[in-house]
Amino acid sequence: MQTVASQANGPEHTSNPHPVGTLHPELVDLANELAPRLFAVAQQYPVGGGEVDGHIAAWGLAYEDGRAQVISASGRAHLSLSSPQSAVRWFGGPADAQTWLIWPRAWQGPGERSA
């Protein structure tokens, strides 16, 4: 099956014998409204000689009720947290590291910044 961008919210054709119902547009709106927001936990740290390096330590989903599900970039840690900000504390790293949330542009809600 080939999918193009203009069909991104169109019903996906599957082998399901039940046709897509008349609620499809409303369900698309509901999914868009309630979808968890993607975020990254970024870390920056000194590497010597005044230089700094950084990486994405984890990825998470923030839910409407404030909870967050987070998985480390290595895939070794899976966390259920009370908030995305809790992930900053969890992945805080050494005292000389800086850790913060990044909300990828496509997933930003009102009042959120990507940096």
What does this structure look like?
This protein has helices at residues 24-34, 84-90; strands at 37-48, 51-62, 68-72, 78-81, 98-102. By secondary structure, the protein is of the alpha+beta class. The N and C termini lie far apart (37 Å). It contains 2 helices and 5 strands, in the order αββββαβ. The protein is elongated. It has a 5-stranded antiparallel sheet, covered by helices on one side. Strand 1 (37-48) and strand 2 form a beta hairpin.
Uncertain segments are 1-7
Please state the overall shape, judged from the principal axes of the Cα atoms.
elongated
Strand order of the largest sheet: 4-3-2-1-5
How is the main sheet built? Answer: 5 strands, antiparallel
List the secondary-structure elements in sequence, H or E. Answer: HEEEEHE
Total strand segments = 5
Helix amount: 10-25%
Q: What class would the helix/strand composition place it in?
A: alpha+beta
- Count of helical regions: 2
Termini Cα gap: 37 Å
